């Protein structure tokens, strides 16, 4: 059975024995001749809504059934409500997301600071300190998911200032230095001092670089090399985030920027879609080159 295109209607007319006596063009594409009588009879028995299978998923349609004559002829109208309800759902997520993110971030930061303090007081108790570091890492993961969800839902404001991209990259690299050391990853920075300032949302770019670095770290479970380089070429700022991890298969490359694509058991799959969104909002571009077993190189270009 085929799915109606969004906001479409399909009209069927059946007689008192449930036989189809008329189907408009949309109706004919929706339902195959073989199962039409059985399904329409069930609908006409008084359901106000029904789930029709559209091949792989069940799709909700609103159904109106009118008895137009005493002789039992019924007009049944199917209307796809899936598209409409999805839009309403997305709009409401977008509007409440900034306040949820704000309310959640403050207590998370508070917990992080307290744990950090306890960590420093536990001198000589390496096992306990390790557990606290793990807890802090989990809180950071929550914060990252929250920030990603905020960008993904279209919420949150953008604040553009003159920013030095080289400084932002060095800062993000420094913040992730410990994570890399723990994972036996050697970090190399090759950031040209000639990169001019550009108008950018520093917070969002930090988030994008951070997501790429985390992906690189996750791609090197046995350790490796992470190289961040930035330089000016052809009037653009070029940024490379390169790892020597397990790489991405060619057939997967076109999917990795799609929301919810993930091959990690604990991944949400929105990290790279958020990176792409952030780069796009800066008028830039992102591309990727990868080789299985050798590593991956994400390249970002930003206009000067
Ligand atoms: N550096 C990389 N090396 C190998 N595979 C990668 C790399 N970066 C991304 N990928 C692939 O792209 C997929 C999507 O990445 P993305 O960051 O969007 O989601 P995720 O890392 O799976 O989850 P999360 O939303 O928590 O970041 C990953 O699951 C992985 O398969
Ligand atoms: Mg990721």
TrEMBL record:
Sorted UniProt keywords: ATP-binding, Kinase, Nucleotide-binding, Phosphoprotein, Transferase, Two-component regulatory system
Entry keyword annotation includes ATP-binding: yes
GO MF terms held by the record: ATP binding; phosphorelay sensor kinase activity
Superkingdom of source: Bacteria
Alphabetized Gene3D superfamilies for the sequence: 1.10.287.130, Histidine kinase-like ATPase, C-terminal domain (3.30.565.10)
Domain Histidine kinase, first and last residues per copy: 99-304
ATP-binding in keyword set: yes
UniProt name for this protein: histidine kinase
InterPro entries: HATPase_C_sf, HATPase_dom, His_kinase_dom, HisK_dim/P_dom, HisK_dim/P_sf, Sig_transdc_His_kin-like_C
Catalytic activity of the protein: ATP + protein L-histidine = ADP + protein N-phospho-L-histidine
UniProt-listed Enzyme Commission number(s): 2.7.13.3
Family annotation (CDD domains): HisKA (cd00082)
């Amino acid at each position: 059975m085929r799915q109606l295109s969004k906001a479409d209607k399909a009209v069927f007319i059946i007689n008192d024995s449930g036989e189809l006596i008329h189907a408009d063009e949309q109706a004919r594409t929706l339902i195959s001749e073989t199962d039409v009588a059985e399904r329409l009879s069930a609908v006409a028995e008084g359901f106000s809504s029904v789930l029709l299978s559209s091949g792989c998923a069940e799709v909700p349609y609103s159904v109106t059934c009118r008895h137009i004559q005493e002789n039992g002829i019924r007009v049944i109208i199917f209307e796809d409500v899936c598209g409409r309800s999805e839009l309403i759902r997305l709009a409401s997520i977008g509007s409440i997301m900034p306040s949820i993110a704000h309310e959640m971030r403050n207590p998370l930061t508070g917990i992080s600071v307290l744990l950090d303090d306890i960590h420093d007081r536990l001198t000589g108790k390496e096992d306990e300190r390790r557990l606290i570091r793990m807890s802090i890492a989990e809180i950071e993961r929550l914060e990252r998911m929250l920030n990603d969800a905020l960008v993904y839902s279209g919420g949150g404001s953008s604040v553009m200032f003159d920013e030095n991209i080289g400084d932002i990259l060095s800062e993000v690299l420094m913040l992730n230095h410990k994570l890399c050391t723990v994972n036996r990853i050697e970090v190399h920075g090759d950031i040209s001092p000639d990169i001019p300032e550009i108008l950018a949302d520093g917070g969002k770019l930090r988030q994008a670089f951070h997501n790429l670095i985390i992906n690189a770290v996750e791609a090197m479970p046995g350790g490796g090399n992470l190289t961040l380089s930035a330089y000016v070429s052809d009037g653009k700022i070029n940024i490379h985030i390169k790892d020597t991890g397990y790489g991405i298969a060619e057939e997967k490359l076109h999917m990795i920027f799609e929301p919810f694509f993930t091959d990690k058991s604990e991944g949400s799959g929105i990290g790279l879609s958020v990176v792409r969104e952030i780069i796009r909002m800066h008028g830039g571009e992102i591309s990727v080159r990868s080789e299985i077993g050798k590593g991956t190189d994400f390249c970002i270009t930003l206009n000067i």
